[in-house]
Amino acid sequence: MRLMVAAAFFVASIANAQYPAKPVRVMVGYAAGSSTDIVARVMADRLSAYWKQSVYVETRAGAAGNLAADAAAKAAADGYTLLFAQNGLAISAAALPNLPYNAERDLVPLAPVAATPHILIVAPEFPAKNARELIARAKAEPGKLAYASSGVGNSDHLCGELFNLMAGITAVHVPYKGGAPAATDVMGGRIAYYFAGMPVGLPLAKAGKVRALGVTSKARFAAAPDVPTIAEQGLPQYEATLWQGFFAPAALEPRLAAKIAADMREIAGSGRFAIRGEPRGVQALLSRRDRQVARGGEEGEPEARVGNSGKSLARTSSTR
Length: 320
What we know:
single chain, 44% helix, 5-stranded mixed sheet, alpha/beta
């Protein structure tokens, strides 16, 4: 018996040392060009260079990221299928009891990659110049304005619901399959406002394609110091964070999981692993990644609140 255990350990050790021996697939549940997709592709390129093996993104957009999460949860637990996800994973777990997978049972977290605020955007010609004016307009036209999300139960949806609740306004929720199509309809004036992820919203704001009204962090975001926080604009308790990170099937061998996680943390936290042509905004997000997030420390606590808000979010969504 001892000999068999030792032999199994030896084989696993060799396999881990040779990992990855073939291409690695990263599942993403949002449309191409969305915040989670952008960061996932940057990380895939960095991992490819670091591992000297192909790492590619496979998109299965829809159902608030749950199509990709389900596929990853049911994939072989050999390290060659990973999931790159965001807050929506935790929110769905709390709000949607009938999912075809169980996030806590079927997936294991590997490494956090980024934790950033959302940015509230409107079209350049939209009348409101700040969050206070947006709230006033919504109150003057109750139920007339529409706001976007990348899917029911995602972080940007929660941001919108929290904003509406705290401001005492009603608006129509329009879910999309990702942040990119949502932002496109904001630019086109078909949607009034959207709490975009930074990789999507900030470049559009800097290019003048949208107007940024506020950020969802308690303090102003360093890459956009002229954009006030929502908390500064009449909602002092408002705060929300978008986190993104890697997951794997729960049965992944622990030593291999530890190796993959260590490699991910190293390349995410150091600018020297940046690949030529990466979006500058994403480089900034990764290099400024809060060390407490990497340790699962204090910055992780708000995400527990996000998960616990899932059932309330489901109730508000069902009335749309």
